[in-house]
Structures are given as structure tokens and as C-alpha cells.
Specification:
about 500 residues; alpha+beta; eleven-stranded mixed beta sheet; four-stranded antiparallel beta sheet; SBP_5_dom; signal; ABC transporter substrate-binding protein; Peptide/Ni-bd
């Protein structure tokens, strides 16, 4: 099966029409300045899972596969691939005459080095190894051919190779300079090469004219690290940055009304829910869980808090996700019916419902307050419990210390429901402290063995329906990805996952 049929087999042929902000054809050259919220601290692909890393580093590195703003999977450093030996071996034909930024040649040895490193001791230190542990090892067939020998099927692997840990790195450079040097002085094969990194301040890249895809049209890309949303907006208004990635919903109208700025608001991967404690308290009862869903007006929250920059969800995924079922509809808001269901379940008036949430998330604090108002209208006694994010994510949730509900926001950059559902609902996973459902486990495991797109999609949709029927969470909304962009920027393709690739972009 060659790459075109493989992409179809993975359900990745549907394009999302994300039109450029402006028509192409503007003057080349210039410097583009973006702002992201977090300095990743290391530019090594195996050291991070942060979107902010990829917003910058996606311009420095290439993977064997690639995915653009249109969401289509396409060849990257591999020109084609095929499945052999009953899908237990994937053979990649590599692009020839490609060089790393330091002049080192890209070849099969570089691919093997990259994955030996990722799957070895160095990879154990970072968060990316577990995404690729379906790979047993990589074999060099010849200088331009490698085989991935698989431990087990992985229908999402080709997508994962387009980002983060799968980015190809230079063997000789890393062996000579060492890991610590590479972290701060990265070298890849991408369209822009590293110039300067000032921790907590900025990263500067310049065009790499010898890139295999052609020279980019910009001279430089500067990424500034600005953690405060208000500061990003102020810098955007002042013209000191060209693209802001941290636009609070409340400031979106300000950006939209600015004469020299454009607001881009598109469907993104991030979904938000209140997960429910199925072990303790009133939420042990599935009918109570359904009553809580029906008692919260999600449309009103989207309108009042998100100012319309989102949409309701029926399952914990956006409509860009492979496995999304358009026929699955969220339970409707029906306060009277919800009250009736609570009475039938003999829930006493004033029963407590505690919501644990990330205390630094100002938007969700408003969402939680609104949800609490609806729960109070049901005759319950809601309470809000903020936590420091590391405490909530590494202690309260995984150790099953939550109240009746807890805040869960998830991106899922692969846009494949597996990478959400397996981690959320399979027994033993960090994000599933309460459930051990043999039927759900079996469905989650089954789809991981399947390369047939239609059959796998059916199983993923069955998982979504089952989770909805069990009411394991209150699905709240899919929030939009929002960018503020200076109008001097031309031919800017807005990626739903914020993984910029500035090949065609120019500035006036």
C-alpha cells in the first residue's frame, strides 16, 4: 500500500479549508514576529509536548511525513511508504540530496539514529517516547530506504511522524556537541535555521535557502515568549509583534475592531469537559450524571463566556477529529427534565457537587461559576475548588481525589480520537482514576489493531456513543483557535493546531 492509499486508510484525506488571510503575491523578504505563551526551555524534539514548541520548531525541523494547515498528511523527508509483512513492517523511501542546516547529509543513518535515540535512554528522559513505543526498531535497507519494524499495529503512527518526537535530527552534530548543546542550539532540515535563543525572551530563525521544498519567502522569523495575554494584545496593537497566539475571549472584540489587525477564529483541537466521578457520591448513578448534563446550558456558556468562539460537543473531540460522529448529538438542556431525573434517583436537596479545576485558567473559572449556577438551580449545592495545575494534574486526578466533577481540557494534536479516548477511558490510564469497564477497554484496544479506515472509524464512533450513553463526562465545548494578525502579514495559513510553517508567508 503506497502513501496515497495509506493516508486514505488513516482517514486523513478530508481537508479543512483554512484560507490564507491575504492573497499571495506580496513582496518577498522581511521579518515576521510571533508571540507564544511558553518558552519550552529545550528545542530538542524529544524533550517536549508543548504546542508552543511546535509553533516555532515546526519551521526548523522536518519529519518523515508532514501535515499542513489544510490537515492533509503528505510526504515530508520520506517520499513514499508501504506496509509489508502483514503490516508488521513499514518501508520508507527517503528524499535524496537533503542537508541539515550544518551541512550534514540527511540519509537512512540519520533516521535510524533519530529513532534509536528516541526509543533509547535519552528518549526515556522526555515525554515523547511513549508515543512511539509501538516501533520495535528501525533497520537501514540502503542509504535512502529504512524499515520500521513494529511491535504492534499503530494506525496513528504516520500522523505522529509529522510532529514533535518524530522530527529527524543530525547524528554527527549531536554526537560531537552533546545533548545539552543541542537543546539550546538546534539543527534540523527545515525551511528556517537557528540563529539565537535568549531563554524567556525570544528565538530567532533565518531562512534556509537550500531547503528541499524551496527557499521560504521571509528572511527571518522571531518568536517572542510572552505569557500574559494582555501583553500579547498590547504588543500586537503596537505593531511590535505580527501574530499573537494568546487572545483571551474577552479581548477578541478589541482585536477585531483594530483597523490594522485581523482576528482569525477557527475550529481547533481543544475540547473542554467536566469529567465525572463514577465511583463516589451522587455521580455514581448514570441517570444522575445524565441529569447534570441536561441541567447545564452549554450554549449559554459558549455565548456568554466564550463570546461565541466555540461550539457544543457530544463527545470529547472536535469535528476535525478522525472518529467524530456527526449523528451523535449532545443531550439537550432541559432543567425540568433534569430535576425530575434527580427526584427519581432520590438525590436529596442540597446534595454536594464539587468541581475541581485549574486555578490559573481565568476563562474556565467563569465557565465553572456558570455551571455552578445551573447546578444550584437543580437544587444541588455546588462548590468550586481551584488547584495549582501540577497538583490537579499529577495528584488530585490520577489518585482519584476529585469531587463529583473535574475540569478537563484536551488538545489531541493528532486529530485522532484514539489519542484522546484511550488516555481518558482505558483502565489504568492516568486520566481515568475511577472506571474499569471491560467492554470499553476491549473497544479501545480493538481499534488500535486496525488499519482499515472505515472499520476503525466505526469502532471509534461506537466508543464515542458508549461514553455518551454512560455519561462519563459533561461535554461542554470545542473552543476555537484564535489568532490576532497584523494586516501587513500576507499569505498566512492559520493552522488549527498552531503549528506554524512560514514557507509562503510574507510581510509588507
Amino acid at each position: 500500500m503506497k502513501f496515497s492509499s495509506t493516508m486514505k486508510a488513516l482517514g486523513l484525506t478530508a481537508a479543512v479549508a483554512l484560507a490564507p488571510l491575504m492573497a499571495s503575491g506580496a513582496q518577498a523578504a522581511g521579518t515576521l514576529t510571533t508571540a507564544v505563551a511558553i518558552d519550552p526551555g529545550s528545542w530538542d524534539p524529544i524533550d517536549t509536548f508543548l504546542v508552543n514548541w511546535s509553533s516555532a520548531a515546526n519551521n526548523m525541523f522536518d519529519g518523515l511525513t508532514a501535515r499542513g494547515a489544510d490537515m492533509k498528511l503528505k510526504p515530508g523527508l520520506a517520499t513514499s511508504w508501504e506496509f509489508l509483512d502483514n503490516n508488521s513492517r513499514i518501508r520508507f523511501k527517503l528524499r535524496q540530496n537533503v542537508k541539515f542546516h550544518n551541512g550534514e547529509p540527511f540519509n537512512a543513518a540519520a533516521v535510524k539514529f533519530t529513532f534509536d535515540r528516541l526509543l533509547g535512554e535519552e528518549g526515556k528522559k522526555g515525554p515523547q517516547q511513549s508515543n512511539y513505543n509501538t516501533i520495535d526498531h528501525v533497520e537501514v535497507v540502503d542509504d535512502s530506504t529504512v524499515d520500521f519494524v513494529m511491535k504492534q499495529p499503530d494506525p496513528v503512527l504516520l500522523t505522529k511522524l509529522a510532529g514533535y518526537g518524530g522530527m529527524i535530527v543530525p547524528p554527527k552534530y549531536i554526537q560531537e556537541k552533546g545533548d545539552a548543546h543541542f537543546n539550546l542550539n538546534p539543527v534540523g532540515t527545515g525551511p528556517f535555521k537557528f540563529v539565537e535563543y535568549s531563554p524567556k525572551v525570544s528565538l530567532t530563525l533565518e531562512a534556509f535557502p537550500e531547503h528541499w521544498g524551496g527557499a521560504p519567502k521571509l528572511d527571518k522569523v522571531v518568536t517572542r515568549f510572552i505569557s500574559e495575554a494582555n501583553t500579547q494584545v498590547a504588543e500586537l496593537q503596537a505593531g511590535r509583534i505580527d501574530v499573537a497566539t494568546l487572545i483571551p475571549f474577552g479581548l477578541a472584540p478589541t482585536v477585531e475592531k483594530s483597523p490594522n489587525l485581523s482576528l482569525i477564529s477557527i475550529t481547533g483541537p481543544t475540547v473542554v469537559a467536566l469529567r465525572l466521578n463514577t465511583r463516589d457520591g451522587i455521580t455514581k448513578d448514570v441517570n444522575v450524571r445524565k441529569a447534570l448534563i441536561m441541567g447545564i446550558d452549554r450554549d449559554a456558556i459558549i455565548k456568554a463566556v466564550l463570546l461565541g468562539h466555540g461550539k457544543p460537543i457530544a463527545s470529547f473531540q472536535s469535528d476535525l477529529s478522525f472518529g467524530y460522529d456527526p449523528s451523535l448529538k449532545p443531550l439537550p438542556f432541559d432543567l425540568a427534565k433534569a430535576k425530575q431525573m434527580l427526584q427519581q434517583a432520590k438525590v436529596p436537596a442540597g446534595a454536594p457537587v464539587r468541581i475541581d479545576f485549574r486555578g490559573n485558567d481565568a476563562t474556565f473559572r467563569e465557565v465553572a461559576q456558570a455551571a455552578a449556577g445551573f447546578l444550584q438551580a437543580l437544587g444541588l449545592k455546588p462548590s468550586l475548588q481551584p488547584h495549582e495545575p501540577p497538583v490537579l494534574l499529577n495528584d488530585i486526578i490520577p489518585n482519584g481525589k476529585t469531587g463529583e466533577a473535574w475540569h478537563n481540557a484536551w488538545g489531541g494534536w493528532t486529530f485522532d480520537y484514539d489519542n484522546t479516548a484511550y488516555l481518558m477511558y482505558h483502565s489504568g490510564e492516568k486520566w481515568n482514576p475511577y472506571d474499569n469497564d471491560p467492554k470499553l477497554n476491549a473497544l479501545l484496544e480493538k481499534q488500535r489493531t486496525m488499519y482499515d479506515v472505515k472499520e476503525r472509524e466505526k469502532v471509534l464512533q461506537e466508543i464515542a456513543r458508549y461514553v455518551a450513553d454512560q455519561a462519563l463526562e459533561i461535554p461542554l465545548y470545542n473552543q476555537n483557535t484564535i489568532f490576532g494578525v497584523n494586516k501587513r502579514v500576507k499569505n498566512f495559513d492559520a493552522p488549527a493546531d498552531s503549528r506554524f510553517r512560514f514557507m509562503e508567508t510574507t510581510v509588507e
